[in-house]
Structures are given as C-alpha cells and as structure tokens.
Amino acid sequence: MRFRLTPRETSFYDMFAASADNIVTGSKLLMELLGADTSARAEIAERMRAAEHAGDDATHAIFHQLNSSFITPFDREDIYSLASSLDDIMDFMEEAVDLVVLYNVEELPKGVEQQIEVLARAADLTAEAMPHLRTMDNLTEYWIEVNRLENQADQIHRKLLAHLFNGKYDAIEVLKLKQIVDVLEEAADAFEHVANTVETIAVKES
C-alpha cells in the first residue's frame, strides 16, 4: 500500500516537469540555430547558455529537496539519476551550440538537421511524460518511443560520420564537425537514459 504524499513531497513532480520544459526550450534553440545566419548564432548561444543555467538551477533545487526530505515519492537514487540525466541533456545541447559558434562553422553537414529533429521530438515526449510520474500511468509508450528515437539517432550519427570521412572536408574541419555531431549523439543517449530511469521507477512502483 502506498503512502499518501505530502505537498512537500509532490514538489519533486513539479521540479521534474520544469526541468523537462526547459529542455524543450533548449531543443527549440537548436532548431533555431539551423536556420540562422552565422551572425545570429552568438545571440542564440547566449540564450542557450541562459537555458542551461536555468537547467542547473532546476537540478540543484531537486538535489536540495532530496537532501531535506525524509520521505520521497520514489527511491532517492532514482530521483538523483533522473535529475542528473535531465541535466546532462541540457549540457550536451548547450555544448553543441557553443561549439558551432566557437569553431566558426559556416555550414553544418547535411544530416545534422535530422539529429536535431530527433532531439526536439524526444524533448517534447519527455516534457509530456514528466507529469505522469504522479500516477505512473501512460508511460510505457513514452520510453518505447524514446528508445526508438535513440536508435534512429544512432543511424543518423553513423551516416554523418561516413559523410564527414568521405574526403570532402579537410582534416581540421572533420575534427570540428565530428565533435559537434558526437555531442548531439550524446544528447540523444541522455534522453534514453531519462526514459530508462522512468521505466525503472515505474516498474518499482507497479
């Protein structure tokens, strides 16, 4: 029999939802970067840094609540893992945007837009899923779809690497672009880590 949660304990759900909503903001900035002139990228990167700082604040708030709560809605290690994985997503997205600006990349290789579209879809699904942690209902399709998207991201990533090493780019450009597409792939992996953690929580609570 489950305990009825106090209002203090239910604040975890609101904080996870806020963290996921912030990731949607980050994914929209990634999409915006695709269509932006090089002159506009620095301003987008600045907004992404602000979103990443907001994500850090959300993560720290969850950790603070975790350390000050006697009873938690689910296992402490799962709360920590979920918060950390959500934070990782924002970190990777911010890093990708920052690298595009720092490396003065004039044109991103074809296929990066597919990577970012996958991340945007995963962000939307994650934001939709977080409120369901309250009841643990309607979550199965979420983690199945995110895992499917991560597999899709793997395929896109491999095609991008093949394209980068086809001799069209010089060695320095390959290094720059490979680092960017690798970081975007890490963001996709982090979405899968979130989904796997949610699945673990749901199984324990069932």
**Binned strand content:** under 5%
The stretches of 5 or more residues where confidence is low (pLDDT under 50) are 1-8
Binned, the helix content reads over 70%
The coarse silhouette is globular
Measured between the Cα atoms of the first and last residue, the distance is 11 Å
What is the helix/strand order?
HHHHHH
- Main sheet specs: none
Mean pLDDT: 93
Beta strands, count? 0
How many helix segments? 6
How does this structure look, described?
- There is one protein chain.
- The protein contains six helices and no strands.
- It has about 210 residues and is mainly α.
- Helix 1 runs antiparallel to helix 2 and helix 3 (about 75-100) packs antiparallel against helix 6.
- The longest helix has about 35 residues, at about 170-205.
- Belongs to the UPF0111 family.
Keywords:
206 residues; mainly alpha; 78% helix; Put_Phosphate_transp_reg; UPF0111_domain; DUF47 domain-containing protein; PhoU-like_sf
Brief digest:
The protein is 78% helix and 0% strand. It is mostly helical.
Task: Indicate the topology.
Blueprint lengths: L6 H28 L6 H28 L7 H27 L9 H18 L10 H25 L6 H35 L1
Helix pairs in contact: 1-2, 1-3, 1-4, 2-3, 3-6, 4-5, 4-6, 5-6
Organism: Streptomyces actuosus
Family: Belongs to the UPF0111 family.
Protein name: DUF47 domain-containing protein
